[in-house]
Amino acid sequence: MTFVIKDLCFIIWALTMRNISYFKNKKVAIVGLARSGLASASLLYDLGADVCVTDKSDSPAIRSAQANLKSGRIKIELGGHSKGFIEGKDLVVISPGVPETSQAIIWARQANIPVISEIEVASILCPADIIAITGTNGKTTVTTLIGKILSADKKKVFTCGNIGNPFCGQVAKMQPGDYVSLEVSSFQLETISSFKPKIALILNLSRNHLDRYNGMQEYLEAKKRIFLNQDENDYLVLNRDDPAISGLAGQARSKKVYFSKEQGLNPNQSAVLAAGGILGIEKNLMLGVLEEFKGVEHRMEHVADIRGVKFINDSKATTVDATVWALENLSGPVVLIAGGREKGNDYGVILEALRKKVKEVILIGEASGRIRDAFGEAVRLSEARSMQEAVARSQEAASPGDSVLLSPMCKSFDMFLDYEERGKIFKEAVIGLMTNDKIQSTK
Q1: Domain containing 231 — which CATH number?
Q2: Looking at 111-234, which runs of residues are DSSP E strands?
Q3: Residues 271 and 146 occupy one common structural domain
Q4: Both 368 and 385 in a single domain?
């Protein structure tokens, strides 16, 4: 009886997914074993693909991800890529952080093996309407809020992407009539082929990822791919206040809808109202959701107050503009924890905000030297070898009324699995300070 129930469940699941036989018996290499790589490997294995996974790293975090895969049934190599892992494959699926210059991708291109992203895999199977959100800043907030307004309107919605739940990890649960609110990075868009959102939003464009792209135009070209496959039955939502974004209207076949900063609303909220209007959601309902929204984890997240000092987790801030925004929205002096893996940032953009708000910057990670050179004598600087050391130093540097802000301006991959792990370890270190403070106060 158990087997009959399992078979019936699989048939029901299969009927709700499109193109379920597309990947059956295909030889697929997954490049990158972070969260999206893990999700796509598991999904494709369940669909009958012959799956292997390769990752250039061999860290405790990667080993932990490996333990979550089908034990012994998916071949895995860690600590580097080998040509034999790529040769003879029908398809290569890459995780968002894997660059086009990766040796594994070069081998695949040389062998004329199609290379696609995890969101492409999921979209091939997805029976739900996709609402895709991209831009330099604000993607996570807008993706979360669109999910919330759909839920408030009694719609079934899956909030996915770089926000924490990989698209591939959720697609098997979706049915026709459902919605996906999907955060999409420029990296993921580079390798789409048939990905076609019903509604696409491009929020803004500022300097970012210039370690990957040869200038802003190339970065914009990657973002534009979000509407590559849209037609006249789809919608493209553009920021009227951003000339680089509003100027894309003539290049898209889809229907254009614009948003602009409104009185009492920030641009992210205006973008959500524009998307909700397309979906027919009542404005008062959306405004109620916006009013109740307390923010997302790792984005200006209040962690604790210790001896009059606020500790704030802004680990999602991987651009200089995002950190400038964070500083502008804090009152009082700030001790800033910043640094990580370099991504071509112009750190000079933040100097004015540093002089106004920041009493000390504590640097971590690979980019410490470059940031130090850019800041010069504009602010007091120190360096820490770990997040725990950085948090301990920040407490020493801060006074009552100050804020300690983790807002790195950089990628996390030099020290952490992703920005979420970085934020989690920051929070754990802060909680450790609280615990020690309580112990000391009872003595």
Answers
A1: 3.40.1190.10
A2: 115-117, 129-134, 157-161, 179-183, 199-202
A3: yes
A4: yes
| Structure tokens given for 348 | 């000079």
- Of residues 345 and 113, which shows the higher confidence score? 113
Q: 10 Å Cβ neighbour count for 145?
A: 26
- Dump strand ranges (E) for 135-190: 157-161, 179-183
Domain count, the chain: 3
Where in the sequence is the domain holding 231, given as residue range(s)?
Answer: 121-292
pLDDT at 2: 37
pTM for this model (two decimals):
0.77
Question: Is 14 or 400 the better-scoring residue by pLDDT?
Answer: 400
Residues 203 and 160 grouped into a single domain: yes
| 270 and 365 co-located in one domain | no
| CATH number of domain containing 421 | 3.90.190.20
Q: What is the mean pLDDT of residues 26-53?
A: 92
- Distance (Å, rounded) from C-alpha 245 to C-alpha 227? 12
Could you tell me the two tokens for 151?
A: 């839920």
Q: Phi/psi of residue 106, each to 5°?
A: -60, -45
The CATH number covering residue 105 comes to: 3.40.50.720
Checking if the pLDDT of 11 tops 50, the result is no
- Total residue length of the chain: 443
What integer best gives the mean pLDDT of the chain?
89
Distance CA 231, CA 195 (A): 12
For the segment 194-205, what is each residue's pLDDT rounded down to a tens digit?
A: 999 999 999 998
Q: Which of 49, 78, 113 is the last residue of a domain?
A: 113
In DSSP terms, which residues pair with 179 in a beta bridge? 129, 157
Contacts of 405 (CB under 8 A, 6+ apart): 312, 314, 326, 327, 330, 334, 335, 336, 337
Encode pLDDT of 337-396 as tens digits: 999 998 878 898 899 999 999 999 999 999 999 999 999 999 999 999 999 999 999 999
Query: Which one has a higher pLDDT value, 243 or 442?
Result: 243
Last residue of a domain, one of 65, 94, 113: 113
Q: Which are the contacts of 321, defined by CB distance < 8 A and separation ≥ 6?
A: 136, 137, 206, 207, 208, 349
Output phi, psi for 266, to 5 deg: -95, 170
Tokens of 441: 């106060």
Percentage of the residues of the chain whose pLDDT score is greater than 90: 68
